[in-house]
Amino acid sequence: xxxxxxxxxxxxxxxxxxxxxxxxxxxxxxxxxxxxxxxxxxxxxxxxxxxxxxxxxxxxxxxxxxxxxxxxxxxxxxxxxxxxxxxxxxxxxxxxxxxxxxxxxxxxxxxxxxxxxxxxxxxxxxxxxxxxxxxxxxxxxxxxxxxxxxxxxxxxxxxxxxxxxxxxxxxxxxxxxxxxxxxxxxxxxxxxxxxxxxxxxxxxxxxxxxxxxxxxxxxxxxxxxxxxxxxxxxxxxxxxxxxxxxxxxxxx
Length: 252
Fold this sequence. Notes:
By secondary structure, the chain is an alpha+beta fold. The chain contains six helices and ten strands.
């Protein structure tokens, strides 16, 4: 690789370097590939290592790079597509993108109780699920299901854990899903979410709240927290817009 000197530009040098590095990632590197060390990269682009670190930190924040002690800096996989506003209706658990982790019986947060129209102290089935892509956690979900939505659950011998979570999801399939609505907002990872998503507390996340309707009422509420650095939103029925970090391929 040759040496590329940065021209004088009005924007901060590290920001311009980030743009140059992005172009290099798209044209020269593949997912999972380890980048040269900081000394080599700084020499190639003719910048101080402090400037290089700022650019690398920004690319990591944007989800283009993974930096791990003892491994180095690697190219991150493309962001996971999160379908929002799709007309395709399906209960949680209808696909295998999510893994059931646990199920407990607890009083939901006040905002969720308001959506479910349950009593202030009424407990509901609380299913925890996780989503992993390319070996890394990208999302965590809490699914709140009132007992009226899963009346036959008491007859199932699965007191807790992933087995009970799976049982709740299967019982939901027995209801006719009449519709759902969703809301998306930017948030900050709580300590619990940060631990599950392998991020620092306060890291940016996307919070997708989904309200499921059946039998003329709210049958379940999902609150899914996605890593903002690994996910992108897709809209429409198909949600099939693919982003390729490759100059020879265009989004379709």
